[in-house]
Design brief:
With 462 residues, the chain is an alpha/beta fold. Helices cover 31% and strands 21% of the residues.
Length: 462
């Protein structure tokens, strides 16, 4: 405002300057977020208003944005350094609010910016690393719970595209190799020995003992089997609490074995199918607690755009090595009547785990993923409500169609690795959860089948 005053011959111009008042108040931001008015909230945040002012209940704008699933608002609040550690009167952080809202994009974003959720009366826990592909490299992270602080959070790092290996952190001293993905072979011919193991179910320590006792790996957990082939019959997941450790070991050994002229083969079991299909009934308490506390879906840890997820989702349901078939549950006559070949089954399985179910593949996948499929079938050992025990004549027909002389399976527990149907079926599923049952493995060498047990006992089975 301008005012002119005359003092004699002199004219004086007085300019009154009013202090600029902010266009918005913190309460305006709260009102916009509560009303889910994203555009108005973004405008208010960009105006420079205090974004950390909480109400009498300790609820901040970040709490509200997470609760109302307003991802653009959360992103903008992070850009202006909104406080992620602020707690309401009940001790809940914005991450807790996001978890309740169930918005995975907000949950992951908050976690990657260092957000914490608080849960008391839980022991120290850790799981990882998990590694995601990103536009400019990798993002590797662990899930952790600190019992002293009662806090669950992620510890993550960005890794450049050129990364071939990285050292673990967060009390993890292992080194993890990252290799370009290569699809596994479904048909293999070799004159080298095969070392076959059944269901691991997160029993990493017993896995390591078995491999070291039989000189498959050395004391540093590196490949020591030369041109030999290590074979797994599925079910690495569920029940035990060291599934991640087992998967990373197998991932590493596969690359090392191939470099040495050997190989590692693994088929998927019903428990991998369950994990990848969001059926989490059997995950260990550690995985359930960490997933619940961080708000991350356990299946989502193995999404197709992650290193372990891509690797795992492309494993086959069946592998043929020479005249052997390796399958987790078994191959039913009903399955072969529809699919005819190993390749047909594996193709549908891989499509399912990478792209899901659709009307064009539903009928086929209903057969593959249920009782008659390779993951669940138990007809070699018992009758079930949907089918009788297979006859030897029916088994011979299945094997002739597959052009194999022996089928190696897991799935059905057996205290002693044994042969059935005159050596046509070998069951390698030893219950590792039961420490009273000794470690066992199947060695196939020079056309002979041997059961290996602790103490270096070697018994000819076939």
């Amino acid at each position: 405002m301008k005012n002119l005053f005359k003092f004699g011959a002199v004219t004086v111009l007085l300019v009154t300057v009013f202090a600029c008042q902010p266009a918005f108040q913190p309460s305006d931001l709260v009102t916009a977020i509560k009303g889910r008015d994203t555009d108005q909230a973004l405008t208010i945040i960009k105006s420079g208003v205090d974004v950390n002012q909480a109400d009498s209940a300790g609820v901040s704008p970040m709490h509200l944005a997470a609760k109302n699933a307003l991802f653009p608002v959360v992103e903008q609040l992070l850009k202006v350094d909104a406080d992620l550690s602020v707690k309401d009167v009940n001790g809940y952080t914005p991450l807790n609010y996001a978890i309740i809202a169930g918005h995975q994009q907000i949950i992951k974003t908050l976690l990657r910016h260092g957000a914490v959720s608080y849960h008391s009366e839980l022991p120290n826990m850790q799981d990882g690393p998990y590694v995601d592909y990103t536009a400019d490299g990798y993002y590797a992270y662990y899930m952790l719970h600190d019992s002293l602080k009662g806090a669950t959070y992620l510890s993550g790092k960005k890794l450049p595209k050129a990364t071939h290996a990285f050292k673990g952190w967060a009390k993890d001293s292992m080194t993890y190799a990252l290799a370009k993905f290569e699809a596994p072979k479904w048909h293999v011919t070799t004159d080298q020995p095969l070392f076959v193991l059944g269901d691991i179910h997160g029993q990493y320590d017993r896995l390591v003992c078995n491999l070291q006792d039989n000189n498959i790996i050395d004391e540093q957990l590196n490949w020591n089997f030369g041109g030999g082939h290590l074979v797994f019959a599925g079910d690495f997941a569920d029940r035990g609490d060291k599934v991640t450790e087992a998967l990373w070991l197998i991932y590493k050994l596969e690359k090392q074995a191939q470099k040495a002229g050997g190989d590692v083969h693994m088929v998927l079991g019903n428990h991998e199918m369950m994990i990848l299909n969001n059926d989490l009934r059997y995950i260990a308490d550690k995985y359930e607690a960490l997933s619940e506390n961080t708000g991350l879906n356990h299946t989502g840890l193995f999404h197709p755009n992650s290193v372990m997820g891509e690797w795992l989702r492309n494993r086959p349901a069946m592998i043929k090595i020479n005249d052997l078939l390796i399958v987790h549950g078994g191959v039913s006559p009903q399955l072969m009547a529809r699919f005819k070949t190993i390749d047909a089954v594996n193709t549908y399985v891989n499509q399912f785990f990478m792209a899901g179910l659709n009307p064009q593949n539903k009928a086929e996948l209903d057969l593959i993923t249920t009782s008659f499929g390779p993951f669940w079938y138990r007809g070699y050992f018992m009758k079930r409500s949907k089918y009788p025990k297979i006859t030897e004549e029916e088994l011979d027909q299945v094997m002739a169609q597959l052009d194999v002389n022996t089928i190696l399976v897991g799935h059905t527990e057996n205290d002693e690795l044994s042969a059935y149907f005159n050596g046509k079926i070998m069951d390698v599923n030893i219950p590792l959860w039961n420490e009273e049952v000794p470690n066992q493995a199947l060695l196939i060498e020079d056309g002979h089948f041997y059961r290996l047990t602790e103490g270096k006992e070697k018994k000819l089975l076939k």
